[in-house]
Specification:
The protein has 918 residues and is an alpha+beta fold. 17% of the residues lie in helices and 27% in strands. It has 14 helices and 50 strands. The strands form eight sheets. Strands 6, 7, 8, 9, 10, 11, 14, 16, 19 and 20 form a ten-stranded antiparallel sheet that branches. It has a ten-stranded mixed sheet with strand order 41-42-46-49-48-47-50-45-44-43. Strands 1, 2, 3, 4, 5, 15, 17, 18 and 21 form a nine-stranded antiparallel sheet that branches. A hairpin with a 2-residue loop joins strand 1 and strand 2. The chain is globular. It starts with a helix and ends with a strand.
Amino acid sequence: MKPMKISILIFLLVLAIQTVVSWKKEEFRNCNQTPFCKSARSRKPGSCNLIAQDVTISHGELTAKLLPKIPEGQDQDQAKPLILSISVYQNGIMRLKIDEDASPKKRFEVSDVIISEFESKKLWLQRVSDERSDGDADLSSVVFLSDGYETVLRHDPFEVYVRAEQGKRRIVSLNSNGLFDFEQLRNKKEGEDWEESFRGHTDTRPYGPQSVSFDVSFYGSDFVYGIPEHATSFALKPTRGPGVEESEPYRLFNLDVFEYIHDSPFGLYGSIPFMFSHGKLGKSSGFFWLNAAEIQIDVLASGWDAEHQISMPTSQSRIDTFWMSEAGLVDVFFFVGPGPKDVIRQYTSVTGTPSMPQLFATAYHQCRWNYRDEEDVENVDLKFDENDIPYDVLWLDIEHTDGKRYFTWDKLLFPHPEEMQRKLAAKGRHMVTIVDPHIKRDESFSLHKEATQKGYYVKDASGKDFDGWCWPGSSSYPDMVNPEIRTWWGEKFFYENYVGSTPSLYIWNDMNEPSVFNGPEVTMPRDALHLGSVEHRELHNAYGYYFHMATADGLVKREDGKDRPFVLSRAFFAGSQRYGAVWTGDNTADWDQLRVSVPMILTLGLTAVTFSGADVGGFFGNPEPELLVRWYQLGAYYPFFRAHAHHDTKRREPWLFGQRNTELIRDAIRGRYMLLPYFYTLFREANVSGIPVVRPLWMEFPTDEATFSNGEAFMVGNSLLVQGVYTERAKYASVYLPGKESWYDIRTGTAYEGGTTHKLEVSEDSIPAFQRAGTILPRKDRFRRSSTQMVHDPYTLVIALNSSQAAEGELYLDDGKSFDFKQGAYIQRHFVFSNGQLTSSNIVPTRGESIFSTDCIIERIILLGHLPGPKIALIEPGNQKAEIEMGPLRLGERAGPAAVTIRKPGVRIADDWTIKIL
């Protein structure tokens, strides 16, 4: 048999095994098998001997040299200094950079993550003051950070921290435990071996060891969060120290992980080196390392350093963490808060706020690997209509292509792609197709031929086009770090290049970690080469980010900048929120995976990637009907709501599990559609401020300690609290409702006391969800085939009254598609109910260049917590009257719970008006 045929057979065998066998721990490196991690972990507190010298103000920054402390009599000139700079920015942000003064090779700095507007917020430092504190013999340099906050550079021992001016209370510090280490690049000595091997793969490491590590301490903190992506608890558990059984750090290294396990610090598909701390005083702080190389992070248990007895400069309570990276430089940001929402605003002022999605993208998506052909697509679409289940997007996986050649269609299975898309678009629906980064190495494939001729592929260590195995077999990968190549890639989405695509077609980027089936740890070798001879090890975690960016930019250009793109990406990095949605990858159909989806999505939201979700039902395996129903009921509250399944699983469209389960799934999906006005308003809040759509309870109740480690319940905006049901045949659920005000069951209107845990009966009908007293929730209650068909439907306002018989809320709407909202073409209303009167007022600051208008009206106003009695409401202007009666909480449920309802007030959603209960 010919060698090529043998290799193809081996590849297919490996591929077949990979699709049915779950994650194998031994296929991936642990810390002890990772030299930089193992070495860093062996360091002892106080081992850093660097001191700060030549401290001065230059170009608006505090600068210094870091040199080893050398005993008198030894030659200081032989030491290679590190160059330190501290810059400060508006709203309480400090940036610290540390790099080599001179080296054989420039270290890679991640580009295109920090938004262009950030530099304009720099505060030029004018002076530095010196102080002697903490019993030091040497001085510390102090500079202004923001009102009430200072940055301190301690000279000897070297340490940097931010503190509150009042009381000198520390907030975040670096190198308080003396663990800082920076392996400077150097020339190889004769006979020195820098190579590393793992499972038959050799990393040449031509530039040798170049790791960076340091400790970071968060003061006044009870818990730390963030640093996705891991399938673990929301509050990060300690990885080293007393009481820690399995000592493995949280890994940040983007990998294609089949059937990942829950409750593990193992790194998954994306990496964001941003950690968030919070404590019982209600104060938060944050720390972000702009570095795209592999990072490992230890959360250190209290007492981890007891045997070393290092003298800390403060008695404040704190959480210590230890950050280790294979490469890169120190480019870190300190965020002082003080509130949790302040930290998110600070972080997104650096990396950008989430993009504003199109309305359809916030609705329900139906996906499977794979819908077989055009007939299958048409039948699935018709079945949704026959079963009165709305949906907005149908997805096609890799099998729709011609032999895994992206931007093509299988001509036998999908001979009329444009007609297929037009049929869906006629119902207001859209289609998404998959486009992965691996390009089939086939000389007859024009995309490969062009990329080869232009030299657009990532190179291997020898300088040849990198050749790895993925779905098409032999594949190469565009070097997305290069802006020229990103532009070229984006143009492939133009209609003349992506033949068969239409304006209703959007894109799914999978496998962009990048996944390489025959590569080390199923990814690209670390010594592969990118633009400027940058090694892959230096930018690995950002590859998928650049790919996501190029695709989203291409879709924008496809429509001449008029249409918001929709791109789902599996891999992500800091800044990915600007380009679209992500999901939690190849999960499994079991109850533990349902449970862990919530902390995973909450964590992504904390790091600004709020448009996220998990595959409803689990990608692998066949869920029992009860699990599938519970997943739909929870998934209806995910920011990104999509069902997806592996091709080896049984078909699981919503109507395939019997009439009763169809009813339950239909009800869950319809519940999402009712809440689309509220979700869309929250996506706009995220777009403006970075505040996530789905958020932890403590973000709304920052001093309530009972919420700090709760990763099973979550807030949707500030108005809804959702508690999942995570066990089979559950009869009860324990739900903690924070705060002093009541909470109203959204299904029954029943009021529950705040500040206590309730043991509630649960039925198959729904999971516990509550509206917070004092809020007003906008809904659309008429059921249509898709969100597009709901555009002109009337609104319902649900007013949940607090103990003062008051409430308030907002509604945002625009055309749901274009970028005109950036020129002011939107409507944003503020609703206030007080003293028996509901007022609607405009909160758009000024009239923009563009105008958006709507004739939509309000057809019902539901008052939860209002006693029956009044019969009439007066509407002004116009001196009109509307009837008040007991009406259903949901349209069509005449036998269901009732509440005081103002019927058919008929006021326009865009106008100013008042409605007074007489």
